[in-house]
Specification:
mainly alpha; Na+/H+ antiporter like fold; 14 helices
């Protein structure tokens, strides 16, 4: 009954309902469309806001509390592509480069899924570590790097993979727009602390939920337009996009407890482990593994895993955490 109540609360939240509205608009083929500049602006706002707030929280908590769970998050992000790659390669029969591209997306993380999870925890009055944004920042790059290296190694005909290509992948993974903004804002927040937050709170805190609603409306439109691609990805990837998040979410919750996080913090680490990137990873993969098929990795992350997580997954990971901590 607790899980059913949690699912109901999540499905009726403004963020999820706006996502559903965008999905409906796409299915009905309305002419609703966001300007590219507006989408980019909303993305920049969300990344800077969550990074800054996370940095302020790190400043208040101290690095001593953050380093161990952050290390666990980084390690998990790097390891997920290593076991998802052979599953996709040999179980799903994907080409080496497509398997590596999908694996990179599932090791990387979704900032919006993370935000939806924090909103959910607030709605159910479950406290969590405010510095959890640090986990989001450190999990993004390692998975992209591992996925690109796997793809280059698999497609290299002779000798080591091209050094220039790996250098480009390293640069994109570390200095890509989303990662740069997230980590940069995190550092700014850590340096400013609470006095800095007091000066910008009216901009980064008060309008945040409204901006998120608009962003999820756009995400619903994008996901709805990709629903036709579900026929192309096949049943294996459909199952992969639901089952792997559940397994990774459970593993993330367990590691969170081992790293000393509270129930809410472990839930957020589980959500991050279960999520799949659709902002940073596609940009890096498009540059470093251009031969990878975008239909596979974009449809899996955006049209399968993202809707599953923000509607059903988050309450499930919270229920897993409650069971583990009981």
């Amino acid at each position: 009954m607790d899980l059913l109540h949690a699912l109901s609360s999540n499905l009726l939240s403004p963020a999820v309902l706006f996502f559903a509205l965008g999905l409906l608009a796409a299915l009905l083929k309305t002419d609703l469309k966001f300007p590219e500049s507006l989408y980019a602006s909303l993305t920049i706002y969300l990344l800077v806001a969550i990074g800054f707030k996370g940095g302020v929280a790190i400043n208040e908590a101290g690095i001593g509390k953050v380093w161990l769970p952050a290390l666990a998050a980084m390690t998990l992000g790097a390891l997920i592509p290593l076991w998802t790659y052979p599953l996709l390669r040999f179980g799903g029969k994907f080409t080496p480069v497509d398997a590596a591209a999908i694996a990179a997306h599932y090791g990387s993380v979704s900032a919006v899924t993370f935000i939806a999870a924090t909103n959910y925890l607030k709605a159910v009055n479950q406290p969590y570590e405010s510095y959890a944004t640090a986990f989001l920042a450190v999990m993004e790059s390692p998975a992209i790097l591992v996925g690109v290296v796997l793809g280059k190694l698999a497609t290299s005909q002779s000798g080591p993979p091209d050094r220039a290509a790996l250098k480009a992948a390293l640069h994109e993974a570390i200095f890509g727009r989303s990662i740069f903004l997230l980590v940069g804002a995190l550092v700014v927040g850590a340096l400013c602390g609470k006095p800095g937050m007091d000066k910008v709170e009216s901009f980064f805190v008060t309008p945040f939920q409204g901006v998120l609603a608009l962003f999820l409306l756009e995400m619903g439109l994008v996901a709805g337009r990709r629903l036709d691609d579900l026929r192309k990805v096949g049943p294996f990837l459909l199952g992969f996009g639901v089952v792997m998040p559940l397994l990774h979410g459970a593993l993330g919750v367990y590691l969170g407890r081992c790293a000393g996080l509270e129930l809410g913090g472990a839930t957020l680490l589980g959500v991050l482990a279960a999520s799949a990137s659709y902002i940073a990873a596609p940009a890096a993969i498009r540059m470093s593994l251009p031969e990878a098929n975008p239909t596979y990795y974009l449809t899996a992350s955006l049209a399968i895993t993202f809707p599953f997580n923000i509607t059903l997954g988050i309450p499930v990971y919270f229920a897993l955490a409650r069971w583990l901590y009981s």
